[in-house]
Amino acid sequence: MPMQDVSIDLETLGVTSRSAFVTIGACMFDARTGEVDKDNTFYRRVSWETATLRRNISPDTLHWWTNQQVEALREITKPGGEPLKQVLIDFAEWVPHKCKPWGNGAVFDVGMVEDAYNQYAIPIPWKFWDVRDMRTVVDIGRWLQMDPKKIQREGVHHNALDDAIHQAKVIGLMQKQILKRAG
Question: Which of 111, 101, 102, 19 lies closest to 61, judged by CA?
Fold first, then answer.
């Protein structure tokens, strides 16, 4: 059965649904196991010109970025990038039909992407009832005395694709342990 779960991460310039985001990373994965299809990932940098067009920038978030790893900061400030509208179209073509998008928070990453789709009048490529939240799964795992930090962190913190892959692995670990306890 092909993977239908998609872990999505954005690197943003604010924390509201209308915030600008400058990179998007996503990976296909199995939410029951955390198995990531590393051959089926999506990563794009958005041009700052279109990322910030009718989207918000928070001075607090810009300040926060100054304290992050140099590699992450360098990636989001590189010149170039693609127009946001084209990135959204490409992403909609990449996600599978009937996917289940996962974000780190019920309304953060997925909510920002949905807001951007609405901004450009592009149909959202998933149903609202299929949106999933990593934080809820992690909280349930913690209530059952599970530690999400058991997953070795790979890549650069605040690189959208590296974070999406890590999120998928954490979701899988928590789900596997929850199912084990329930069974």
Answer: 19
Residue with tokens 């998008």: 101
Tens-place pLDDT, residues 53-101: 999 999 999 999 999 999 999 999 999 999 999 999 999 999 999 999 9
Question: Regarding the domain delimited by 5-182, which CATH topology (the fold level of the hierarchy) does it fall under?
Answer: Nucleotidyltransferase; domain 5 (3.30.420)
Query: For the chain, what is the radius of gyration of the CA atoms?
Result: 16
Phi, psi of 6 (to 5 degrees): -130, 120
Q: Minimal CA–CA distance to 126: which of 102, 83, 104, 97? A: 97
This prediction has a pTM of 0.95
In the sheet with 36-45, reading across from the earlier edge strand, the strands are: 36-45, 21-29, 5-12, 100-103, 132-133
**pLDDT at position 41 over 80:** yes
Tokens for 84, please give them: 């946001």
Residue ranges of domains in the chain: 5-182
